[in-house]
Amino acid sequence: MDALDGQTVVQVIAKFGAPAEQHEYPMSEAAGEFRAGLEKYYPMPQNRDVRIQELTWESSRYFTRSEERRVGKECRSRW
Predict the structure, then answer these.
(1) Nearest CA-CA partner of 69 in 6, 26, 15
(2) DSSP letters of 20-76?
(3) What local confidence, expressed as pLDDT, does residue 50 receive?
(4) Are 24 and 35 in contact (CB under 8 A)?
């Protein structure tokens, strides 16, 4: 999924279609093994208030896209 890093939400949805699930949460609540990699990009505690938008698609295998969201601009995707 590294090839998808840096894509916008619009670009990813255009490629894969509408996600099956969407969630948004602050980085301070990014717990669990599937979200552990986010801390590589958003180390705690200084990024605790960064909002993460998470989209999940169903296919032969599941994949999830997480994205940092800041007021006024869309930032890079993290897979």
Answers:
(1) 26
(2) SEEEEEEGGG--STTTTTHHHHS-TTTTTT-EEEEEEE-SSS-EEEEEEEETTEEEE
(3) 92
(4) no
At residue 59, does pLDDT exceed 80?
Answer: no
Helix/strand/coil for 13:
helix
Only one residue has tokens 């990813």, namely 12
30: burial class by Cβ within 10 Å (0-12, 13-18, 19+)? Answer: buried
Query: What does the radius of gyration of the chain's CA atoms come to, in whole angstroms?
Result: 12
Please tell me the predicted confidence (pLDDT) of residue 8: 86
Sheet holding 21-26, edge to edge: 21-26, 51-57, 63-70, 73-78
